[in-house]
Design a protein that fits this description.
heterodimer; A: alpha+beta; Cytochrome Bc1 Complex, Chain A, domain 1; globular; B: Cytochrome Bc1 Complex, Chain A, domain 1; 12 strands
Chain lengths: 445, 450
Amino acid sequence: MSSAAAKAHHAPARFELDGGALALLEASHAVPLVSFVIALRCGSALDPVGKEGLTRLTMRMLRRGCEGMTSEQIDFRIDVLGAEMAVDTSPSTVAIHAQVIARNLDAFVDLLAKLLSAPTFPEVELARLRRETAAEIVEARDNDRAVAQKAMTRTLFEGHAYGRSPGGKTDSVGRVTREDVVAFYRQIVVQGNVVIGIAGDVTAARAPELARRLVTSLPKGAPTPDEVPEPSMKPGRRLVVVDKPERTQTQILVGTLGTSPHDEDHVPLVVANAVFGGTFTSRLMREVRSKRGWSYGASARTMIDRHRQAWIMWTFPAAEDAAPCLKLTLDLMATWIGAGVTPREVAFIQRYLVRSHAFEVDTAPKRLHQALDVELLALPADYHTRWIERVRAVTPETAAAAVRNRIHPENVLAVVVCTASNVLEPLKGAMPDASEVSVVPFDQE
Amino acid sequence: MATRDAEKRSAWAAEIGGLAYEGAHAFGGDTLHRWRLANGLTVLVLVDASAPVATYHTWFKVGSRHERPGKTGLAHLFEHLMFNETENLPAGTFDRKLEENGAETNAATWVDWTYYYESLPADRIKLAVKLEAERMARLVLREPQVKSEKEVVANERRYRVDDDVEGAANELLYKTAFTRHPYGWPTIGWMEDIQGFSPEDCVAFYRTYYAPNNATVVVVGDVRERDLLAAIVREYGPLPSQPIPPEDIHPEPPQLDARDLEVRKPTATQKLLLAFKGPAFGDADHATLSVLSEVLFGGRAARLYRSLVVEMELATDIRGWVSTFRDPGLFECWATARAAHTTQEIQRVMDQAFERVCTEVVTDDELARAKARLELGLLQQLETIPGKAEQIGFYETVLGDPVHAFQRVEAYRRVTVGDLRRVARRYLGTGGRTIVRVVPEAKAPAEAAQ
């Protein structure tokens, strides 16, 4: 095996740190850059109802002031070191993603350690961030795809933590106080809750010391327990029309509950989904784009998290094609569930998934992120390392059974962003068995 | 060592036949080798064994600048047509062959160029050679293929322009700023032009621009260079070169007037798109103006971000960009107003900042910050094997220098505060700029201006 091929199979180095913190290192000297992920074993699922967005606001506040430095000084310091940092929030984890030119590594680690352990949470900065966040939420309504995704998530997982937006709502972020942020920071930014990932131009000899510097000043504390219940969805076939003026095009999402990474038939479902809508030559693309030219793209995906997540398919046809396109995709879905996948399709997609796996592990940051996923989403320990083996083991029968068992056509939610006055009636005709049809404004949160 | 390398490669060229070795370029710590086939095809190879993958890029020196009024979007249509039927591959076979070998494939078109790529396991690289050579010369262009892809492109246009506020504003900006040069029409094409393409239009365009002497193949990855070259000569060698017509481009006359347009869109907030005429990418001023753009717009510590987003809270988002075109383009400035604030308020603050960099020098700290951000951005583009191939192909096609990315960093390093003031005075004049204001549809003009 070549050294390059060997990289595809080894796991990042692991270091146990003080107080139960964990560090993972994936070294690579391909370019003089070092990437950091400072992740917590909890996410926006912890946000209190009415204060959605608290997790993200708390982590974004870390760069808005620390002992001895103002927000402006921090921003300048990050830039002048040739670095960048951003916060990414999901229901199960929140993380600072950062990168720096290798020659400034030490100075950047000192800065990150200070931001993590000594934030000052200035009231004036929190007020500013609340307003900034609310403005960003309003601005995101210009993006029809984002509008569709938000509507799908909140309707599919209504009443469940997965249905809440990690970014919060315009009114909920306005209710977050400095006391909320300080208390939440003290609760979640503790050694036992931290996973540090380092990838890039750093040696194995230096990595433990760098990771220790990041967590050493944090208080001790246990990992946040996962108290999120298994999600369920409202039964029935539902159509939600998100009304937005002057749309020449529509965004159509069709979703239902999908799979948990711990399901025995998880990988067979992923394989069956790849046949259905995972590649450029999949059934969906062939029927929607290649044969009919109705949509620039057409795809389906199985999302993963600690608990069962969604299965969603996506197309974006012109307004006049929306109803036939919705009908076609629902019919294709029914055929997929009823008739399964053919041996030829499964063999083809296995070759694709096995051979393209090289691109899942071709850079140090990608290899690191796989290991972080295992830690943060509580995936089976061998989820990634035995992926190819599991894909190869799937048969047409196990793939078809996984679709039948997991994707229930009687419980389907279709979300369409469009100008309702033009498209609503044809859409109803495309989904005549819908038990519930609703029209909501595009700025509903 | 370099001489021995050159001798070895010249010997390969003689053994394989039909190609010439044209020398090496230092690419960071690696070496990029340049080859040319007898039919004019340029081949650039960078062996990179950091992962068992490879990327195969084919860059054509054809973009929307080579179209004519009434036929806009033709270069981009090829980005779609090229994945269809060829003389030896039935429809759908191109993508299926690549997918079953674990490859990812796509393409991109812009004003000056079009490129196609395959990223695939390194041991499958010869499949990319075979498929790309096939579609360079043997594409089938009949009514069914053209009709189907026209529909797809029309939908892409709705997605990227017609229903996208920023896409629509950007299209209007270039249409207004360029009155003669082809940069004034959109790369995706006007909708009526897209819907009017005939197979004959496509065949003529294909026969004119899709030829080995108008293309550069870039290969980066864990490949055996000699075997790869032999495969390239075998597949591309028989393809004839074509006479490439001289460009028929009208230079854009100097813009002496300020152009200010307002457009109404279903959006919650106002948007400002303000653009000065900028230098060509190959102009020495381009790197300097890019540094100035970082001082003003790049990151949370930039002057205009601090004033507009953080301190005055007039905007949610601002950006600056100097277009990377072969001919002089634009220095674009974008701002999204916060609710109840207007483009006029934002413009006043921007104008004060532009005036200030024309009269005062920026601080050394600001200059250092801007340079560090640009260096980080360049290194990020070189993090992956496909990223390296893209940089090589882009710089080769636009500037004729595949390793110019590294010279670009050196150019940034040489910029002084005096240089910044000079380019500010040269390019940031208010007399010849173009402004597009997006106003929420529901509001009357007087209300929107308050």
